Request: fold
Amino acid sequence: MGGAEILVRARGLTKRFGDFHAVVGIDFSISRGEAFGFLGPNGAGKSSTMRMIGCVSPPTSGELTILGLNPVTDGPAIRARLGVVPQENTLDLELTVRENLLVYGRYFGLPRAVIRERSAMLLDFVQLSDRAGDQVEPLSGGMKRRLVIARSLINEPDILLLDEPTTGLDPQARHIVWDRLFRLKQRGVTLILTTHYMDEAEQLCDRLVVMDGGRIAAEGSPRALIQRYSTPEVLELRFDPGDHEQAAEKLRGLPAERLEVLADRVLIYITNGDEALAAVRGLGLEPLTSLVRRSTLEDVFLQLTGRHLDD
Amino acid sequence: MTAQATRTAPAAAPGRGGARWSFAVREFRFWLTDYRRTWRGSVISSVLGPLLYLGALGAGLGSLVNRHAGGTLGVSYLTFIAPGMLAATAMQTAFGEALYPVLGSVKWVQNYFAAVASPLRPADVFRGHLLFVVLRLTMNCGVFLALIAAFGATRSPLAIASLPVAVLTGLAFAPALMAWAVTRTRDTSFSVLMRFVMVPLFLFSGTFFPVTRLPGWLQPVAYVSPLWHGVELCRTLSLGTTDLGGAAVHAAYLLALAAAGYAAALRTYARRLHE
Amino acid sequence: MSSGPATLRMPLPGLLGRALAGGRGHGRGGLPLVERNARAYRHLWILLVAGTLEPLFYLLSVRIGLGALVGPVTGPGGRPVGYTEFVAPALLATSSMNGAVYDSTFSVFHKLKYAKVYDAALATPLGPGDVALGEITWALSRGLLYAVTFLLVLAALGLIHSAWLLVAVPASVLIGFAFAGVGMAATTYMRSWKDFDFVILATLPMFLFSTTFYPLSVYPRGLQIVVECTPLYQAVTLLRGFSLGVVGPAMLGSVAYLAVLGLAGVYVASRRIRRLLLK
Reply:
């Protein structure tokens, strides 16, 4: 991070809805040009945090500064410099693709000529130029998502907020969205995103916080988090359901750093997976399938919370 | 519906005899179940609405009309418009039941597609839904007729026959509207149709004043209006002035429209639900 | 006497500003949302045409048929007037009401709960006050269109007898404002489409009983008071006075009634939108 300008700073940030504690006193800082992620399962408090940063949800307590301004009193001024990709698309189905950008740009008070020029470029950027005059409803899920991204860029924002940018998209559509977001990142746009996909977080985020139950469980770059909270490799084993328990019991004798016994699999956290597999066979166990892979953020999350991201 | 589908034994070959209607009854039951949830709201638009019109125009405006032109109508204004309102209620019920619910069944709720995934065919779906529309017409018109009779706005025991006539008036519209609605993808055209077709029919089909008051060139237009035939028939029955020949012409016209709409709906339902 | 248009124009912006204080975004008020609605209606223009024509159908039916049955009736100030002249301003008032109510209830509810138009708008510098103001301004623009068309038709039918009728245009806009404000406030309390039966339950009896089709004198005194309390009666009285050239200070009361109704509605609506969308 070095001495980069801090764009968002939170200290003891809290959000309560009645008796429900959505966000419980979290601290984080996001610098200009960073891609910062909130990783966590549904209900972890990611979207509530995003809505507070988007100035559409006043914090219950704590301190939040965005672009040096206070979201409670300077909401409109901050929002003028944010781009928002909400969890739900909120596209205007009564307007065409191009009109969605035009109208949205007018919400920012931009002159029509400027919007026209920018929307042509943005539609090109999200590969929707040939659908500019079409209605929105028949577009595929991936196209709609790209249109929302184009819309969020109409005011050339300092910060782009992305709430679950690829949830519900098919793998191909996800990769197109990732590619576009990666290009934005290359251009120096500050990205703040929430996700419950570890691969998305690993692909896009320079730095992230792992959230669980409204709190931050860990913070760092994906690589640093994996290094700190997991082993270099993981051996995944599947046994016949009848032998599962017995096999797991035997495996506890292995010199592994950690062993997770899941309902359908056993995960062995270790430095060298292939050696571990040989050791498993040495114990006289014959798994139905075995897989040696690198540790991921999913393993970090499992280690930190004892649960899966998609739980 | 799928639960009911298992109950009937492998019936006669599709499209033959009694099986035709036993399949339709399953679709009818779906609408009946649905109606148990929503009937309260429909009371406002289908019964209270016409009643308010009757009160405002029959009683309120009637006091002015009776003073000024009582003689030209031959009866009190309330007695004049009550049977007209009965026929108009049938038309409005038809518009209400045959447009949005049909589009909703293919677009929003998609229950038509659930139905044709069972042994039901598009024709059964249409007939079952039409049966429900007939039920709604009978209910709305029945309640309205009972009320105007209670207010003494009917003059003849023949008025009881205006219930089937009103239902028939509704049927001159409903199947045709269903045939068209099932082909739609948006509901914009519905409010256009209601304002460009239903409202003018409501206003110029002899409900509120005799069509003989229309300018000469407009009168033939009124004679084409199914609502005018319904109004005429209901009014003569209510006043006890029906002549058999005239009644037969009116009824035949309404029946012909109902049959044409029915035939059209069988085609458009098949095309939309089995594409 | 000349207080009509002046009272309409003067206090509104200031009071509106106060009613919306804190809910404003970058100071351009609701104009961007009006532009959004205008663009949406470019695809739905036929609905505007239909809405414009509906009161004209009623007017024609009165002109062609019903008028002769009813004959002259007692107009404002006790003067006898032709039945068409009597009903026409009431039909204009009703269509102002219906247009404003449609825009501020069904249409706003759809945008609030399903289309998420306001969620999108609130992610930009616009605030909840801008949203409320935008929807109201749109309802008024539409009301203006209806009113001007209606008056042009009245002129074509030779039914214009007083220059005061021109004042009926801003008066129709005020009527639209009153109903749009109340409608929008009510909409923020609606839970599902079923609650919209109450909208019909409120507007239909008003249309039929607020002296649209016959003078107040038809009712016994007790009922007269009830009718006089309805906003549509106030609206009809106002337009009937202007269209028949019977103008008096009592009309200030109607103007005040409608203005307060609209302002209260906008105030409640923008507070409620804030509570609903800025949780």
